[in-house]
Amino acid sequence: MGLYDAIVVGAGPAGLAFASFFSGKTLLIEKHKKPWKRIACAEWVPPGLDIEPVQSIRGMVTVYPGGEKRVPFRGFIVDREKWQRELLDGLSCEVHLGEKVIEVKENEVVTDRGTYRGEWIIGTDGPLSVVRKGAGLPPHPLLPAVNVRVPIKKPLEDTWVIFSSEIPGGYGWCFPKGEFANVGAGAYPPLYPALKFTLDFFLKKGFIKEKIIETAGGFIPLGGVKEVIKGKIILCGDAGGFTDPLTGAGIQYAWESGKLAAGFVEGKIHREGFEKEINAYRRFIERRKEKRKILEEGWENLKEAVERSWIAFSRG
User: Fold this and answer.
1) pLDDT tens digits, residue range 261-275?
2) Helix pair 271-297, 302-309: axis angle to 10 deg
3) What is the overall mean pLDDT for the chain?
4) Distance between CA atoms of residues 237 and 15, nearest Å
5) Which label site among 18, 128, 167, 195 has the fewest CB atoms less than 10 Å from its CB?
6) What is the pTM of this model?
7) How far apart are CA 185 and CA 232, in angstroms?
8) What is the dihedral of CA 135, 139, 142, 146, to 10 degrees?
9) What is the rounded CA–CA span in Å between residue 156 and residue 154?
10) C-beta of residue 208 within 8 angstroms of C-beta of residue 202
């Protein structure tokens, strides 16, 4: 088999961005047959990201030991399943679905179907990245998360988050999505008691119905953006640490990092410009890591820790 200009591993937002913007000979490999299904995500994006919204969000209510605090929090809830499926269907490159990458070494990708060679290997395969391992980089520290989709009882315009000792190391959420809501929790194990606590809270609030339509689990990488280029390997999205370790937000950063990598590999962005852009993300995420450290280290006094770290009190 001939040499590809780029082999992309993973068909999430970062991989789809790279494959959409890169015009060279590309192979996209994805282990799931339907990667748009069962995505563990609250599906919030900020204004400016070109995705068709399901509904607008006006504010965020934070529930914590100090009470409730509502702040403006403009953004949109999107349908990632629809968006990612349409992007995947619209790609002109070669796509292999349901093919598992076993190993990455130098410019080779070994799968359960064969071996492929690429000038560049783009790791967009999530927080448990095989490509990252192949680059010789350490794994990310991870926070487990679970998200369920449930029907809502009444229209909501705000997102809700809960900080409680019942959700250790993280928070619970309710993000309305039209007639449904994404309700979940990111927490240190055991995770499902934290989810039950969150669901019970929003049931008592009268926001949601008891029926769970879909459940999806995953991990939030907490390590931040370290080494992104290793030889001819580039890491984007969760694989590269482009995830806010405080809030868990990552759709925008995944998309932008994939697009940026495509511009660099294509020669539209020189190395210095690429590194400058990456450093901007790195600085932002390092600031958020410091906020997360404040939250974790102050967990015994959760009221003060939330007020010193969470975005409802400080956006820095």
Assistant:
1) 999 999 999 999 999
2) 160
3) 96
4) 8
5) 128
6) 0.96
7) 36
8) 50
9) 6
10) yes
